[in-house]
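User: Can you help me understand a structure? I only have the sequence.
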Amino acid sequence: MLGDRLRVLRQQHSLTLRQLATAADVSPALLSQIENGATDPSLATLRKLAQVFDTSIAELFSEPEAPAVHISRSGSRSLLTAPPGQITYERLTPGRGDLEVLQAHLAPGDASSAEPWAHPSTECAIVISGEVVADIGGEAYTLTSGEAVTFDSRLAHLYRNASNQPAHLIIAVTPPNP
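Assistant: Let's start by predicting it. Here is the structure, written out as tokens:
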């Protein structure tokens, strides 16, 4: 699904694999593998591609034919992985573009990204277990199990696990703001 969506976006923007690769600072071979479903991109690669297309990561996963009722079952969800030391997400919602809900796992010392980043949405993160530090707009907010934070995600942000125990959270993101 992601490969097909990426190919459509690339063609809509009249880009060759090489042009997109140059713009996103990735290899043409990697893009070809993603489009053909031979490999899954890292979260960093998804962010670069979303920037090139001036869209959200969620839009890269949009499914125009998403069902009206979507059941998300453990073990069959789309998995968004990142380099070691960063967050892993399981996608809980289909790609209709109206709402993105992710289940995230942070091992001790892991973070959602190397640097805080921003995107046009509203975001809410609920800590299910463990402790998470939400760095938002230059401020650090420590959240424990049962606590949540909601914010304008145009503020640069990241989540990190500064504890020595794993952390689990649910992140909901609305569609981009105008």
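Now, to help you interpret it: Residues 2-12 form the longest helix (11 residues). The two ends are 26 Å apart (CA to CA). Let me know which part you'd like to focus on.
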